[in-house]
Amino acid sequence: MDYPSEQRPGAPVKAGVPEHGRIPKYYAVKTQIASLLDELGEGGLLPTERELTAMYGVARETVRQALRELLLEGRLRRAGRGTVVAGPKLEQPLALASYTEGVRRQGRTPGRTLISLDRFPCPDALAEEIEAERGEPVWHLERVLLADDERVGLESTYVSVARVPRLDVDFDPDSSFYAYLHDALGIGFGAADERIETVLATPREALLIGTPPALPMLLIHRVSRDVEGRRLERVRTLFRGDRFSFTTQLARRN
Hints:
Blueprint: H1 25-40, H2 49-56, H3 60-72, E1 76-79, E2 82-85, E3 90-93, H4 99-104, E4 110-121, H5 124-130, E5 137-147, E6 150-160, H6 167-170, H7 177-185, E7 189-200, H8 203-209, E8 216-226, E9 231-240, E10 244-247
Parallel strand pairs: 3-10
Antiparallel strand pairs: 1-2, 4-5, 5-6, 6-9, 7-8, 8-9
């Protein structure tokens, strides 16, 4: 059997086939299902596991392993009691731009669902990150991120109550926090430090985002500064690894 190279942008040149030509059976099935997805198109309903087993003449567990990888890669998504072809991943720029801006640029509708807005005494570690005094009140804003009503992430924002005293009164939790700071308080963002890592969501986080606990997540830690260089917020954001990719532009330093 010939296993042609995948033609999707960013796919491996030889589609993962080692030089000796021996590949696991599930990978051969995965390659065949991937070709089927291209024929079905975005939103197309995939045949059932039983039907795929009959189509390719393999064990059901072989089909399941192939489907698991395609789900993790974001090429498939669950829809009700079936599985459909997923659309392209959302591209979020690594820049001082809000989630709202990034999603709108791709023709999708951003949204958020408020989980909690609490205030608590600032612990030592957080105090240093946002330039607050130990024990002074800080806000914790937790929201599920949406794109066209699909849950795609979970965001936790920490900011001093002194900097944003009326967050619980004036702020619409479905809107952009950055826009609120700029429009209502005249606070602009000047710089940020970010760190990205791959993690698994906790059971609580997976439940809120609506994903299996085994689905890899992209975790971004951000500490932002205002235009005067003062630390302003600390943000911890989980993005679904099957629905997001991140982009940036690099330039050579002189």
